[in-house]
Specification:
Length: about 220
Amino acid sequence: MKPVLFSFWRSLAAWRVRIALNIKGIEYNLSVVNLLEGEQFNDSFTSYNPEHSVPVLQLGNQSFAQSLAIIEYLDEKYKQNPLLPTNLKLRYLCRRFSLISAADSHPVIVPRVRNLLASEYKFNEVQVNDFCRYFMKRGCEAMEGLLEHEEYSSLQTHGPYVLGKNISMADLCLIPHIQGARNYGVDVSNYDRLISVETALYENVEFERAHPKHHPGFVKKQ
Ligand SMILES: N[C@@H](CCC(=O)N[C@@H](CS)C(=O)NCC(=O)O)C(=O)O
């Protein structure tokens, strides 16, 4: 039986895992959890993830949550096309970069936070959007700043990705982050290094196929 990824087209976290599965060459089926309609609170889904969030990956009779934990699990279980470097310092650089989006920016723009801001704190739509744009922009600035830093820039003399020659989990976090930033109106064109890595990554079919535009239920912004 193929693995099932519980996913939603707008989810940046599920997007990371779709790329990982593609890179590992693991075929999977998608099960849509419509976060805007509250399907994350359905009993059937809550039994997989009491956090009421996607992604959840069902592998055999086991289910896994938290995108970075899933990616690291897949990387340890399936050795082909590694997503984390073996070198200790590079593993640290990979995780450090990944966490800018996964731990510091993205968690505050998810539906539960936007809904709380609107319902409890009476933010209007523009204010909610500004709040999200602030954090996504901050993430872009931090990522761009890191890529300019010698620790990372020295790696880019070897290749076009965050860690240079090899695609890594850091790239899987960068791609959804930039698009998420655009969705909230961040002008990302100033982030030369991010754009350059993004452009190089989309030359890989594994990244192209994971894009939300191919996801069931995708809605193009008007
Ligand atoms: N840290 C988690 C974040 C999971 C998460 O919050 N996912 C969002 C979509 S990107 C979600 O399902 N949110 C549901 C909600 O906020 O109600 C991960 O990386 O998997």
